[in-house]
Amino acid sequence: MRKVRFDPFLRLLESGDERAAPFLAQIGGLYAIEQEHRPADAATRATVRSRESLAWLLPMDLALKRAAADPAILPHGSLSKAVHYALCQRIDFAPANYFSRYHQS
Question: What is the pTM for the complete model shown?
């Protein structure tokens, strides 16, 4: 699975665009799950991902899709670019697709 990186949203926040903060929080939540369970064996990590990650992934996917469709976000602006970058990095969040793809890595 490809991970969504913080960089595009972090640069926005550092430049004063507070609209990036919710996306950073959501990405950070996913990274926190990974970090917390890094010492565990692969089977345990897979179980934890199944149980905990969807609570972050589904709202993040919805927020990204809403932002991509928001006419108030300029199409060539930095936030739009960051949102579209994240959408290109995401996977299909349908539970069957998410679990089968995520656990192959």
Answer: 0.72
